[in-house]
Design goal:
The chain contains seven helices and no strands. By secondary structure, the protein is mainly alpha-helical. The chain is globular, with a radius of gyration of 18 Å. The longest helix is centred in the middle third of the chain and has 42 residues.
């Protein structure tokens, strides 16, 4: 049975990754052409960080106090996107949600297939197909894309009874999405 489960989990993970990649190319143009001010904010922070760890101030932003101190509520997300920016500019930053979403959907479909076999793979695919709004939001350049992957990793660590690993993922979640202001 274990061998069969491994087979289905690999097939399921591959299907999940392919489905999300297809959605990325389908929705991607719509997202790039949408008037989304947050997207440009994340591009600017990524460009300003340019691979470094912390952005202490935003000198051009007055009135919010960011010219004196910048409390980054999406710290880890911006570190990840700044590395992407350093590697390939805005195009590389736009690939971050695709990568995170692919990890998420490959994990969801793969885990469902591992535990439930072929039926689980179909269930994972059905959850993808019936949630186009969720899929679309995962393709947006937003920190929740990282938070969802970290939350899933945390749940898996808890399920495997690995409390130290769960604590690491919990801390990373807090650093990545609205929990701590660094």
């Amino acid at each position: 049975m274990r061998r069969n489960s491994n087979y289905w989990s690999i097939i399921g993970a591959a299907i999940g990754g392919v489905l999300f990649s297809t959605a990325f190319f389908y929705f991607g143009q719509m997202i790039r052409e949408s008037p989304d001010p947050d997207r440009y904010y994340h591009f600017a922070i990524s460009r300003l960080l340019n691979g470094s760890i912390k952005l202490n101030t935003l000198p051009g932003i007055r009135g919010l106090g960011w010219d004196h101190y910048f409390p980054d509520k999406e710290f880890l997300f911006h570190v990840v996107t700044s590395w992407a920016y350093r590697l390939g500019g805005e195009i590389a930053v736009e690939l971050v949600p695709w990568l995170l979403g692919s990890i998420f959907w490959a994990s969801i479909v793969g885990l469902a297939a591992y535990h439930l076999g072929g039926f689980g793979a179909l269930l994972g695919i059905a959850s993808f197909v019936t949630a186009p709004g969720f899929v679309y939001r995962q393709l947006m350049l937003r920190p929740h894309t990282l938070a969802i992957v970290l939350l899933l990793a945390n749940i898996l660590a808890i399920g495997k009874r690995k409390p130290k690993l769960a604590a690491v993922f919990a801390l990373l979640f807090c650093l990545g999405y609205h929990a701590f202001y660094i």
